[in-house]
Amino acid sequence: xxxxxxxxxxxxxxxxxxxxxxxxxxxxxxxxxxxxxxxxxxxxxxxxxxxxxxxxxxxxxxxxxxxxxxxxxxxxxxxxxxxxxxxxxxxxxxxxxxxxxxxxxxxxxxxxxxxxxxxxxxxxxxxxxxxxxxxxxxxxxxxxxxxxxxxxxxxxxxxxxxxxxxxxxxx
Length: 171
Known about the structure:
Blueprint: E1 2-4, E2 6-10, E3 18-22, H1 24-27, E4 31-35, E5 41-45, E6 56-59, E7 65-70, E8 72-81, H2 84-94, E9 101-103, H3 108-111, E10 113-118, H4 122-130, E11 134-141
Parallel strand pairs: 1-5, 3-7
Antiparallel strand pairs: 2-6, 4-5, 6-7, 8-10, 8-11, 9-10
């Protein structure tokens, strides 16, 4: 079994000896066993915290590198006008602490449409429709935004202040 214990952050596909395709739920875990896309048995033993992102590299003591890929899984893509409508939908979905992928289609330049992608949930879907989104239920890779405090290799977040007094950063 290939043991992977170190996060490398984003790597080029050519830097890896194999790939490991995982759904989002599995990429949130730090310890698990899996089979690589090339059929290798791998054991993942990582620090807790950062979610494995599509394109991240993992390595172990033997120096072999595996590249993580986001699996295709059921998602809902809500499309609507970019700008304030997209921002409003993203705000209301994010306010419900749901993981979101946000983007625009390749041809969005002419249409001005953006999208928000999330796991299927009838309550969130109803909210998106009320805010004017057109929904598409389909299978696609789900690689949500990492969050403003996320940094490769760090669990949680850190604040660096140039002054000295107490802060309560409870979450």
